[in-house]
Amino acid sequence: MSKLDEQKTTVNRWKLPARYTAQVFAFYMAAIMALLMSAVIVAANTGIGAGFLSRVSHAYQLAMPAAFLCILFVRPIVMKLVTITIHK
Question: Can you give the residue range of the structural domain that contains 61?
């Protein structure tokens, strides 16, 4: 087995089956959006100064799980709305 084949095998071991696409999408979307929104809201409420990253981190700890669950529940509704809105 060549080095390239070994690398592909190693990468494929870490990949999830396609049936988890919705959950993986929700996780990444929640992680990114919760971080961005936590930073914006903390900056708007308390400013960007000493302790900003700490405050963002604390807000993110609450926001991330909430965002993940919301995306899991809202995604089917959004997909339906997109189907209704877009011409095929």
Answer: 15-85
Distances (CA, A) of 1 to 10, 11, 12, 22, 36: 13, 15, 15, 34, 44
Domain assignment present for residue 55? The answer is: yes
The verdict on pTM exceeding 0.85 is no
pLDDT in tens, 47-61: 999 999 999 999 999
Q: Is residue 8 part of a domain?
A: no
DSSP for 27-53 reads HHHHHHHHHHHHHHHHHHHH-SSTTHH
